[in-house]
């Protein structure tokens, strides 16, 4: 299980990330673009993934990781049930979301620094 504090710690570990609000949710942004939100009412996250990453992560557990059931989902927005996800999986998902939304130079700089391909 991942709670708000763990989610926040993971999301804020990336360069130039700021926490803000987005309607009734907590958002995490890079260069003013949202890459993840946290809903405190139901311990759910929404993350912006590429469509291929969305499909790949959904293979882990379709009841825990699934496309938002509307047009946003067809743009890569993905729901993650934090009450049933392992911390190492959400860490990878947040990294993918950050790299999807961050400017390429910033994302590549982070990946190079961490020796991640």
Strand order of the largest sheet: 1-2-3-4-6-5
The portion of residues assigned to helices is: 25-40%
**Oligomer state of the chains in this structure:** single chain
Evaluate the radius of gyration.
Answer: 13 Å
Kindly report the average pLDDT value: 95
Please outline the major beta sheet: 6 strands, antiparallel
CATH topology grouping:
Aspartate Aminotransferase, domain 1
Number of strands: 6
Order of helices and strands: HEEEEHEEHH
CATH architecture descriptor: Alpha-Beta Complex
Structural notes for this entry:
The protein has helices at residues 4-11, 51-58, 87-101, 104-113, and strands at 17-22, 25-30, 33-39, 44-48, 65-67, 77-81. The protein is of the alpha+beta class and 117 residues long. α3 crosses α4 (104-113). The termini are far apart.
Summarize the structure.
The protein is built from 4 helices and 6 strands. The protein has 117 residues and is an alpha+beta fold. Strands 1-2-3-4-6-5 form a 6-stranded antiparallel beta sheet, covered by helices on one side.
List strands and helices in order, with pairings.
Blueprint: H1 4-11, E1 17-22, E2 25-30, E3 33-39, E4 44-48, H2 51-58, E5 65-67, E6 77-81, H3 87-101, H4 104-113
Antiparallel strand pairs: 1-2, 2-3, 3-4, 4-6, 5-6
List keywords for this structure.
alpha+beta, 6 strands, Aspartate Aminotransferase, domain 1, 35% helix, 4 helices, single chain
């Amino acid at each position: 299980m991942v709670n708000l504090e763990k989610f926040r710690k993971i999301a804020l570990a990336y360069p130039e990330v700021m926490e803000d609000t987005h309607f009734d949710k907590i958002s995490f942004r890079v260069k003013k673009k949202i890459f993840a939100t946290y809903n405190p009412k139901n311990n759910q996250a929404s993350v912006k993934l590429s469509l291929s990453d969305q499909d790949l992560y959904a293979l882990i557990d379709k009841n825990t990781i699934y496309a938002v059931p509307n047009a946003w989902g067809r743009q890569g927005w993905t729901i993650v049930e934090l009450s049933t996800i392992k911390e190492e999986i959400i860490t990878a998902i947040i990294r993918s979301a950050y790299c999807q939304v961050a400017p390429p130079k910033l994302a590549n700089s982070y990946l190079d620094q961490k020796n991640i391909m």
